[in-house]
Amino acid sequence: MTGRGFRTLVGVQAKLLLREPAAVIWLLLPVALVVLFGNIPAFQTPQHDLGGRRVIDVYVPTFAAMLPLFLALAALPTSMAAMREKNALRRFAVSPVPPAGMLAGLLAVVAALAALGVLLIVLIGALAFHVHAPNGLGAVLSSFVLGFTAVMALGLVVAAVASTAGAASALGVPVMILNFFFSGLYFPVAQMPAALRDIGQYVPFGAVMDAWSGYGPLWQHLAVLAGYTLVGGLASAKLFRWE
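Above: the chain's sequence. Below: its structure in C-alpha cell form.
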C-alpha cells in the first residue's frame, strides 16, 4: 500500500469513528470535566488526605486516562466487531486493500485521537489551573504510552473474538470500568485502602497512575504494562478471525 493510499484509509476510518455520537461525547467529556473541576473553589485547596495536593491535581491524570481507555476498550473493539457483523472484514480479506493496512489505519486513528486528547487535557490543567508536571516526566510519559499500548492490546483481544458490536461492548466496557476505578475516576487513588491500591498496581491504568504519583517501584509498573502489551498482542493475533 502506498503512503497516499494509507492516508486515505486513515481518513476514512477517522470519519467512520467520529460520526458516532458516543465517540464525540467521549472526546468532549474529559475536557468538560477538567474545566468543571478546575472551577470548583474547594478543589483548588490543598488536601491533607491527598498528600498536600489539590483535587484538581489528582484528577487531571485521571481525566487524561479516560479518552485512551474509551478508544482502546470501547470504540476500537466495537468498530471492529461491527465490521465483522456486517461481513465487511471478510470483504477486506479478499479486497485489494491489505487487511493489515485496514487495521493499521484504524489503530493510527485511535492512537492519534488518544494522544491529542491527553495533550489537550494536560495543557488545560497546566495553563488554566496551574497543575504541575510530575517528577520524572520521562518515566510518566513512558508509563502513559505503555499504558495505552496495554489497553490497546486488551481491546484488540476483545475485537478478535467478539462477533457483534453488542458482544464487544459487553466484553470491553467492564474492563474499561475496572481501569476507570483504579485510575481514580470514582474517588482518588490516594484515598483507596492499601489492599485495593496494591491490586491496582496490576491493572493497566492503575499502574499508570501509580507511576504518575511515584507510588511503588517504577520498574514494576512498566513491567506490568509491557506484559499486558506483549501477552495481549500475541493473543489477539492468535485469536483474530475475519468472520
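Residues 3-239 form one domain.
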